[in-house]
Amino acid sequence: MKLQVLGCSGGIGSGRRTTALLVDESLLIDAGTGVGDLSLDAMSMIRHIFFTHSHLDHVTCMPFLADTVFSRHESHVELYGLPETLEAIRNHILNGIIWPDFTAIPPDYPLLYYRCPLERGETLQVENLKVTVIPVNHSVPGVGYLVDDGQHAFAFSGDTTSNHTFWDALNVHPRLNLVIVEVGFPDNQLALARISGHYTASLLAKDISRLHRRVPIYISHMKSGLEEQIMKECRFYMPEYNLIPLTDGMTFDLS
Questions:
Q1: CATH number reported for the structural domain that contains residue 102 in this entry
Q2: Are 190 and 151 in contact (CB under 8 A)?
Q3: Which of 5, 7, 186, 188 has the least C-beta neighbours within 10 A?
Q4: pTM over 0.85
Q5: Burial 11-26 (b: 16+ CB within 10 A, else e)
């Protein structure tokens, strides 16, 4: 299983891209601005897009992707998400006003296809991968994902603040190579982090103690320009953990 970090930043500017993770060339988790760096051929290989939630930094490149590759595609691109997430995309993005509805065009064989809405806790078989939907705690309905190829697995929290569901789900999984978790704000913005549904280092420190496995923990979604401060705080509050800043362009060969 190959994982490419197309984007993981909490903002844009000077090489920063918002969240998009590409798994084995055909499965995309979120569709932030990092998708725009792919070649046309690479975009055309994407068959499945799993959204963690409906916020713009996680969905913004999906309509551009559809517009770019629809004439090259020979099969649907399937969209997965919570009912609330798919409804937001349907009503506010692919509505014929903000962007053409590529679930209805081309009329003979539309490019995009809404899969049945995800249920929290379910596991789906997608090609050779199993994708488990993990509920998290964000300002809008959101989930994280655990992706397993039968030998190796990684987990991604999506956007979240304090919760037990994400960590408890990881503890029961026998194969886990790495965890990607967001820390959106430094601790001097703790109140804002709570309101907007994001971790700070001190909030994560309280939750990560629930994780019984010792695996590398990659920190993502740090606000632009505050990455060094956030990582310094993470290492202060969690010195016993192997904490690594996730950066745009990282690749992992989980083998």
A1: 3.60.15.10
A2: no
A3: 188
A4: yes
A5: beeeebbbbbbbbbee
